[in-house]
Amino acid sequence: MAALAAAPILPKHATFMPLTIPPWPRQTPEISRAVSQCIESADWGSYQSQAKKTLIAALESLFETPHVRLCCSGTAAIEISLRAAGVTAGDEVIVSAFDYPGNFRCIELLGGKPVLVDVARENFGPDVDSVAAAASTRVRAVIASHLYGHACDIASLRDLCDQQGWVLIEDTCQAPGMRVNGKPAGSFGHLATLSFGGSKPLSSGNGGAILTRDDRMAARMAALLDRPSEAFPLSALQASVLVPQLAELQSDNTQRDHIARQIQQQLQRQNSTLKCMAETRDGIDPAYYKLALRAASSSIRDRVIATAAEHHLPLGHGFRSMARSSERRCRKPVPLDRSEALANEICVLDHRALLIDEADVFELCQLLGNP
């Protein structure tokens, strides 16, 4: 790729009409009615509210799973999953070096030791061969995240975990509604997690959920969460705003996928230094929280982000690599070159920018930069 020139990314005389990025979270009549009903019925004050029961039933249907437990955040969902998997002090948990850093910290919180593996070549999830090479008698679980709209090789990871006697925790916090070869992401792991944080495609400000098809795991979660009231609850009001969003999730995911592909094609036509890393593999129905764009170097990436900020585009850095964490904190049995490269070269576009009109894609790509 060509190096970025010293001049600003946009030519001095280039002019564009202001690009409107839809606000998030949405304010819709359906959400307002759901909240009003929750308040007027006094359901908001119930421990076992109807709003929560409705949300659980909807999630069970969407993810084709018999057990759903709501909780206060996606990070709490990871921690609860690790505890249900039996992770205690001295145990090892395999995780990608390029992942949400909270997953690394949850392992440490329980006294476990993260085992870092590299990113797969074809997606942003853990490389299956790296995971296999990281095996030891102390490994108890594997965390596998679907990131930036890409599905990790979750079926192969499940097979490997079953062979090794490990628990697979499928982190679906970024990918609600994704489908992999006809099955919902979140239905492959022994446990799976969701996040309903303020910026997420399904948002209640905070919140999360844990999913499982395993009756034993469900019983372990109940022992952790029911004391006898819920230890990490999601409120009825939070549940009420999520139900209407679930009804729109599929159409929103379809729109985001379409615009992501249009951005990819437009940047290619512009011979941009940015490569749009949209998920285009057969058998994958993507769900985007962030769309990854890869630059030729970290300096180009940082300047693209700075220019995007001038135009109020929701573009930022991706995850940093945990590869430089000390050997005291983690075990690193394989090279982590791909994780380091991605951390240095990736920037990410927020999912609300994928809800623009198709007619605005050209302008968006011009603002992203075409040096």
UniProtKB/TrEMBL annotation:
Signal peptide: none annotated. It comes from Novipirellula caenicola. Transmembrane segments: none annotated. Pfam families: DegT_DnrJ_EryC1. This is UDP-4-amino-4-deoxy-L-arabinose--oxoglutarate aminotransferase. The gene is arnB_1. One of its GO terms (molecular function) is transaminase activity. Belongs to the DegT/DnrJ/EryC1 family. Keywords: Aminotransferase, Pyridoxal phosphate, Transferase. It comes from the Bacteria.
